[in-house]
Design goal:
binds adenosine-5'-diphosphate; five-stranded parallel sheet; binds guanosine-5'-monophosphate; four-stranded mixed sheet
């Protein structure tokens, strides 16, 4: 099905969407669905030194690299931002963000709060979205249900979550992921709203204004 995507045509620059959440809040679930259901948005595949989880694919979920390679790329300035999260290093490819912008496509960055802060500094017009779980117990249950972490890792990630929730204050939007359907509808609405921004539609608005001006000249 072809969908109308305001602001994507006429060479409009794409929007950078940053999505952060405490681990287990449902960010991957929501982002995957967004990428499947909304046209014109690319996923920024980060580089990381952490090992792949079951089912994760190289070049799709992450670029999995060793520390020496990460360091080499970092020194070459390949990352628009990078951060240490839970003992592993993660970085966003500057080239991927640049490429999406040049092609007029939106790009979705699934990164932590340190990364979001750095992106806001580098790209002030980026749209920052924070996914909140409905509470600590729900977060614990989701982390356990996912079954990808050891019990110690779950405890560690729960410990980090409090600080991350506090840092939600620097975000433009907050989506509370209690009911998944409701949360997804909110996330989609945020993307649509960003695409409807006047600046984003400037070229198209100019064309429409020119069309009206031509009409005025033709019909005295
Ligand atoms: P994150 O990427 O934020 O770490 P995930 O998307 O992997 O989180 O979700 C963690 C677990 O919680 C998964 O098993 C997922 O199916 C589940 N989950 C996500 N959203 C909800 C929700 N609204 N209600 C119940 N479970 C959810
Ligand atoms: P996970 O290991 O669960 O995939 O990710 C752990 C955390 O690292 C998540 O909060 C995720 O958003 C964040 N993350 C993933 N890629 C990047 C990145 O390129 N930069 C930063 N700053 N954080 C990232």
């Amino acid at each position: 099905m072809k969908r109308a995507t305001p602001g994507r045509a006429h060479g409009a620059r794409g929007t950078v969407f940053v999505v952060s959440a405490p681990s287990g809040a449902g960010k991957t679930t929501l982002c995957k669905r967004l990428l499947e259901e909304i046209a014109g948005i690319d996923f920024s595949v980060s580089f990381t030194t952490r090992a792949p989880r079951d089912g994760e694919r190289e070049g799709v979920d992450y670029h999995f690299v060793g520390r020496p390679e990460f360091e080499r790329r970092r020194r070459k300035g390949e990352f628009v931002e990078w951060a240490v999260v839970d003992g592993q290093i993660y970085g966003t490819s500057a080239a991927a963000v640049r490429k999406a912008a040049l092609r007029g496509r939106d790009i979705l960055l699934d990164i932590d709060t340190q990364g979001a802060e750095a992106i806001k500094r580098a790209i002030p017009e980026a749209v920052l979205i924070f996914i909140l779980p409905p509470g600590r117990e729900a977060l614990r249950e989701r982390l356990l249900k996912r079954g990808t972490e050891t019990r110690e890792a779950v405890a560690r990630r729960l410990g980090l979550a409090g600080g991350e929730v506090e840092r939600s204050s620097m975000y433009d939007y907050v989506v509370i992921n209690d009911d998944l359907e409701a949360a997804f509808a909110q996330l989609k609405a945020i993307v649509t709203a960003a695409r409807c921004r006047r600046e984003r539609q400037a070229a198209r608005i100019k064309e429409i204004a020119a069309d009206f001006a031509a009409g005025r000249r033709a019909v005295p």
